Amino acid sequence: MATVEEFFRESNAIEDVYSDAALEDSFDAWNYLTQQDELTHEVVQEGHRLILTNRQPEIAGQYRDSQVYVGDHVPPDPAVVHLKMENCWERFRRQVRKL
What is the domain extent for residue 95? Predict the structure, then answer.
């Protein structure tokens, strides 16, 4: 099983990011997120801001506002991202309550 550091390095490499600063940003976000009691828009956006503040400050901490494509996959339209995220967290909360 990969360590958290190995996971972050591999994840960053997918984005062609190899700097130690980016690795530290990933750890900062991880530490922040693991200390939160609940997933909310604000918590996720702060984690996103921590990860991207040094590499892509213009989008750090924000939901996207343009359509993107990932290979053949077309993610949801930006207009519905907020709602889709809320639905995701609600499903997650229901699962956690079952534990």
Answer: 64-99
Q: What is the tally of structural domains in the chain?
A: 2
CB–CB of 28/50 below 8 Å?
A: yes
Measure the CA–CA gap between 70 and 61, rounded to whole angstroms. 20
CB 11 within 8 A of CB 26: yes
Same-domain pairing of 1 and 45: yes
Note whether 56 and 76 are same-domain residues: no
Angle of helix 81-98 relative to helix 41-52, nearest 10 degrees, comes to 110
Does residue 75 contact residue 68 with C-beta atoms inside 8 Å?
yes
- Tens of pLDDT, residue by residue over 28-72, are 999 999 999 988 899 999 999 999 999 999 999 999 999 999 899
